Amino acid sequence: MDIPYTVEVRRDTGLTNGKIGIWLFLASEVMLFGALFASYILIRTGAPSWPRGDTILNVPLATFNTIVLISSSVTMVMAWASLMRRRFGTFRIYMGATILLGFVFLVVKYFEYSHQFDDGLFPSTNNFLAIYFTLTGLHMLHVIGGMAVNAYFWGPGAKLWKTNPEWFTNRVEHSGLFWHFVDLVWIFLFPTLYLL
Amino acid sequence: MVLTIVTVAISRFHLPVPIAVTVALLVATIKGSLVACYFMHLISEKKLIYAVLALTAVFFVALLALPVLTVHDGFWIH
Question: Which domains does chain A have, with CATH numbers?
Answer without folding.
Answer: 17-195 (1.20.120.80)
